[in-house]
Amino acid sequence: MAKHKVKKTIDEINRKIKEGKVVVVTAEEMVGIVKENGPEKAAKEIDVVTTGTFSPMCSSGAFINFGHSKPPIKASQVTLNDVPAYAGLAAVDIYIGATEPTIDDPLNKVHPGQFKYGGGHVIHDLVSGKKVRLIGKAYTTDCYPKREIKKQIRLADLPYAVLVNPRNAYQNYNCAINLKDKTIYTYMGVLRPMADNANYATAGQLSPLFNDPCCLTIGLGTRIFLGGAQGYIIWAGTQHNLSVARRKNGVPVEPGATLMVMGDLKEMNPRWLVGVSILGYGCSLAVGIGVPIPILNEDMARYTGVSDEDIFTQIIDYGKGYPKGNAESLGEVSYAELKSGTIKLNGQIIQTVPLSSYVRAQEIAGILKEWIQTGHFYLGHPQHLLKDI
Amino acid sequence: MYSKVLLLRFPREIVNEAIVVNLVKRFDLTFNILKATIYPRKEGLMVMELTGNRKNYKSGVRYLKDLGVKVESISQDIKRNEEACFHCGACTAVCPTGALYIERPEMTVAFDKERCSACELCVIACPAKAMEVNFDRGLLE
Known about the structure:
Chain A is an alpha+beta fold. Chain A folds into 2 domains: 10-57 and 164-388, no CATH class; 61-160, no CATH class. Chain A is built from 6 helices and 26 strands. The A-B interface holds A 54-56, 112, 114, 116, 189-192, 197, 199, 274, 276-279, 284, 286, 339-341, 351, 353-360 and B 86-90, 92-94, 102, 104-108, 124-125, 127-129.
C-alpha cells in the first residue's frame, strides 16, 4: 500500500470526540471541501464524514423472544398481526421478515397486488409502540405442554427484540426501464411501457458504500446509525461482491458491496423504520442507515469526496431482459444525470424517478454528524474489515 | 382565462340529463372530463377541469348549482399524509398530470393539488400509503 502523508487512527478520532475537538462533515459537504483543498489538506482537517440512506431494503427483519408462558409452550407456528414469523428456533424465539405478507393476502391474484400489510409493517407498528396480536401454535412435549398461545405484545414489554438485516445499503443499484409495450410492476417501482420512465435507487454521493467504495475502513463492529438508534455492521451482507467493474476512482458501476447490520429494536424510531407496500411486488421495510467514514488518510478523503458526477450505474431493461435473467446493460448513466430529472437513451429523453429518499438520507447524515460532534457517538473498531470478506 | 379542476356531485334525479354540454353552449366554457362515474344509489360523480373567462366560469358554476349539482374543489378530498410521506419519489412514476413532482435540487416530492385529476394511481403506488382520496368512499355503500 502507498505511503500516506496523513495518518490517523480510530482511537485518535475517538479521543477528539471526547475532547469535543472532532471535525465532522457530511458526505455532501465533503465534495466541495476535497474539490477546493485537495484530499491531503482535507484529510488533515476532517476526521469523520457521515453518510446516509433511506430506502426500502427487503432483506431486513427482527429476532424476537416473546417470553415464556405458564404453562410453557414450544411455539412452532407463529403469526404477528396474521403475518407469519419464522418459528423454527427455540421455544419462544421467532424471526419476523420484512417481506412476509399477511396470511390471507390476495398477493398478485388480481394483478397488480397491493400488499397492504406485511412483516415490515409489523416491525413499524412495534417500533411505533402499537400492540401487535401474537398467535402461536405448538405440538406438546413433556416439558412444554401448552398447545396454543394468543396475546397482545408490545415492544416495550418484550424480553428481547433485535433488528438483524442480512442485506442492506446496496452499494450501487441498477437504473430500471421497461422496453415492453405494457406497464410492469417491479421492486424498482412502476415502469411505464416503451422506456417511458427510468427508476433508480440509492442516495448517490450520500450513500454509505459509495464513500468507502473498497470497504477499507468498515467491517464487523463498525458503529452506525440504524433505524434512529446506534447499531452495528456485523458482516458483509448477502450478495456482497467486491469483484465488480469499477471506475478509476474505485467506485463500482454495478451492484457491489452490501452490509449486514443489527441493532436493538427497542431503541429505534418509527420515522426510520417504515413498513412499505410495493405495488405488484410485495411488502418491505424502508430502513434508515448512516455510516460514519473515518478519514484515516488522504485516500479516504479522496473517496469520501466523490460526487454524483463521478458515480455511474447501468440501465437495465426490466420488461424483457431481467425476467429472463439477462440483466444486460443498455447504457451507463451518472447519478448527477439521474438526479437532473431526465436521462437520454438512444436519442429518447426519459423521465427519471427516484425510489430512495434523498431528503431523509441528508437528514440521517446530519443527525449522525450531530451525534458525533456532541460526543453521543463514538466510532466502533472494526474487527474484520469488509474488504477481506 | 380561468381554469379549475372541480368535483361535481349529481343527485340521482338529474343524473341522466345532458348538463355539462350546456357549459359550452350557454357559457362559452371548455371542459376536460377526467373522471365520471355513476354509483349504486345512482348519484353521479364527475371530476372535470373547467376553463373560460372568469365571469362565464362563475355563471356556469351558478348554473350547475341551481340544478342541484354540488360543486366542490377537488383539493378538499385529496390529501397527502405529510407524516407518512418520506419523499422517495415512487409516485412520480405514475402521476399523469405532474401534480406530484420532484422539486430540484432539494429532491423533495411536491404535491400541487391544482394539477391533480384524482385518478388515484398514486394511492396504490405510494409505498408508504401516504396519499388519501376520500370522495367516493361513502358512495359505494
